[in-house]
Amino acid sequence: MSTFAKPENALKRAEELINVGQKQDALQALHDLITSKRHRNWQKTLEKIMFKYVELCVEMRKGRYAKDGLIQYRIVCQQVNVTSLEEVIKHFMHLSTEKAEQARSQAQALEEALDVDDLEADKRPEDLMLSYVSGEKGKDRSDRELVTPWFKFLWETYRTVLEILRNNSKLEALYAMTAHRAFQFCKQYKRTTEFRRLCEIIRNHLVNLNKYRDQRDRPDLSAPESLQLYLDTRMEQLKIATELELWQEAFRSVEDIHGLMCMVKKTPKPSLMVIYYAKLTEIFWISSSHLYHAYAWLKLFALQKNFNKNLSQKDLQLIASSVVLAALSVTPYDNTRGASHIELENEKERNLRMANLIAFNLDPKSDGREVLSRSSLISELVSKGVMNCVTQEVKDLYNLLEHEFLPLDLASKVQPLLIKISKVSGKLASASSVPEIQLSQYVPALEKLTTLRLLQQVSQVYQTMKIQSLSKMIPFFDFSVVEKIFVDAVRQNFISLKVDHMKGVVMFGNQGLEADELRDHLSTFAELLNKARAQMYPPAKKSSKLAEILPGLSETVDKEHKRLLARKSIIEKRKEEQEKQLLEMEREEETKRLRLQKLTEEAEQKRLAAEYEQRKNQRILKEIEERELEEAQAMLQEAEKRGKKKGKKPIIEGEKVTKQTLLELARTEQMRERQEMEKKLQKLAKTMDYLERAKREEEAPLIEGAFQRRLVEEKVLHEREHQQEVELSKLRHEGDLKEKHRLSRMLENKNIFQERVLSRRQSEYNRMRAEAREQMEQLKKAHKEAREAKRKLLYYLRREEERQRRAREEEEIRKREEEEIRKKEEAERKAKLDEIAEKQRQREREIEERARLQREALLGKAAEPRPFDLGGARPAEPQTAAPAAAAAAAAAPTPGKYVPRHRRTEGLSQAPPSDPDRWGSGRGDDRGGDRWRSDRGGGSRPTTWSSSRTR
């Protein structure tokens, strides 16, 4: 590896090697200098070295060397002088293009020379075999060897430049220009493979740009200039794709444009959107997507009408006619009938995708077919006033196909309109981006639509029809084509018919209960009855039990909801404030970092600039001195050569020569030579003037004579041609008179034949009219019977509802009567029970009264004195006193047992007064007497008075 102290030394060394024919060594020397880390500071000499370097790379077709050198040079001048890199790249592309054009101009057969499938592929095996088998190469092979390598190198040049400029925000314009030139290269030479690769390369560049957008010097797509450049590049890509008929790549380009618009959230200029929708119409038409094609035309019409101020009424009418015809070309039935669930999901996803491309926003949860449909499109055309801008033929065609009911004359009335429409075409003068409009492209689809409408209308009127009659009614196609059309329509359940080729008839109408008219008949009828019943007997509104139980619940819920909303808003505000504070802190830190970095870079740039200016001044002074010395030596040598040619001696000797002396002598010699040259030129100009004047004087009479002779010849020729025309006219007139006389004899027969045909057609018309009238009468009769049956059914239903209502009312009355009887019986039973209870209580009171009287009687007898046995035995009582004693014992108070006061007073009042000296007084003496009796009794238990209470 060679090392040079200064870049100028490497440049001089390379020039010396080039002069001796060693270009590879010169290229290697420059490559070593460029890739060296010693020379990373940009200077003007490096730019000169790069110019020489790319010239060598182009001349030797060294694409790898060129790419390495440009990458290294980009690193050197990225932050210092990007313009230098731009100039070098432009020079590189200019040289490559110039070499390729030179090679192409040398080849006589370009198409044979470029008959290569892939410019990046190596030499094919058959070429190697031919090179070894054939001794002499033909002209085609020589052209191929001459042109193809240069075009390969040019293609490699475009790829290299795009790779180098892909992430440089300062060279976006050069990147876009390179992409446009590469597109034009693919278009000019029909390079479809390279075009696909170029689109993929640009697409990957954009993906990487979005992936690493935070890196330094990356283009900012939010800037209007950058966005416009990228959109222009994609629009050019879309144009070239459609011109090369690469429809798949064109559709991907459309998706790229749509993705770019969604990425920046900004609508491009209307001029670009016009190109976008114009290309979409071509793509959808080629893919037979007539519905999307019509929607694209509708968007294009809206853009042209709203934003194109130069649009004339004729151009607007032509665009509106295209929109309406495109909408009518859509098949009037759904092609996804009977499809599987996966197919329906794919169709839904496809509709959403296409709707986004055409700028129609759909709900992903809804069915996209309900929005993007033929019916909604036609209704939108009517609502937006497109029908008011179309030609009269298109308007008549629309009314015939969508609103009129003419089963027998539909095709005959549509056919002349289609003939007129097929002749309408033209290039729009005020909309250059719109392709040439050819309304004839819609004629086949409109003929198919007319056939479907005719079959649909005929199926509503006729049950059977002959194939021959049906074929006459459809003049567009043969019956085999018509059969294919209605087979597809029957499969999609648009119409219902059968073909019997043995009988030669077509049978219309459904023959079973699975027809669309009968399938949902009962359910529809039930729904209508429910609606009618709800209107006649509206349901009573039930009061809310919750509102009765909790009257303040709604207010509480509202207050709680408002409190939660307020709390949520406070939390959100706090989060936003915290995020703002964090962002502000990050922004301040970033600002400080950028400020510090900017100051560092400015100081470094100032230092580099000062060093560069110092080196530049020194280099300039040195170059001026060297140049002056070289000029002086060159002037000396030139003066010596002129002196030798003229036989003069040298003016001065070489030893005595000084720079100032040589400059003075050279100026003097130049002035003298210039004066001599001016004198020679004046003399030559004078000689040329005299010569030209003499030539004109000599040729003037000759030109006049030739003109007079030409007049005479043309006059004779005119008279001869006029005479011939008169004779031919007479002959044609005589022949026409003879033909008229010959045909006049057939006039009577022609009139007879005409009357016969008219009478036959009149009779056929009368017969068909009578049949139609009879069928109408039958239909009226059938409708009348159906209405009568419907009225009877309604009457029966009303009677049945009335009967059910009366039955419900009687049942309610019966239930109320039974409830009243039950309540009455319950009251009587309760009264009887109360009476029985009252009697029972009365008896109990009587029993208690008798018991009380008995107790009182017993207490009165127990008050008398009783004799005791001193020997400790029980007192002797008569047998009759036992019940009285039991009653007295029951009435007397027992120790530890509560006795009511009224009973105590009653006992005391009935008892006689006792002797206090004999028995003692008080309850304690009685207990003492009892204890004495117990002791005297020899341990027997004391005798107490006890009795059970008798009720």
TrEMBL record:
Residue span(s) of domain PCI: 316-513
Subcellular location per the Swiss-Prot or TrEMBL entry: Cytoplasm
Gene3D superfamilies linked: 1.25.40.860, UVR domain
UniProt biased composition (Basic and acidic residues): 802-855, 915-938
A GO-annotated cellular component: eukaryotic translation initiation factor 3 complex, eIF3m
Cited PROSITE patterns: PCI
Any single GO BP term: translation reinitiation
Quaternary structure, from the entry: Component of the eukaryotic translation initiation factor 3 (eIF-3) complex.
Name this protein carries in UniProt: Eukaryotic translation initiation factor 3 subunit A
Organism in which the protein naturally occurs: Kalanchoe fedtschenkoi (Lavender scallops)
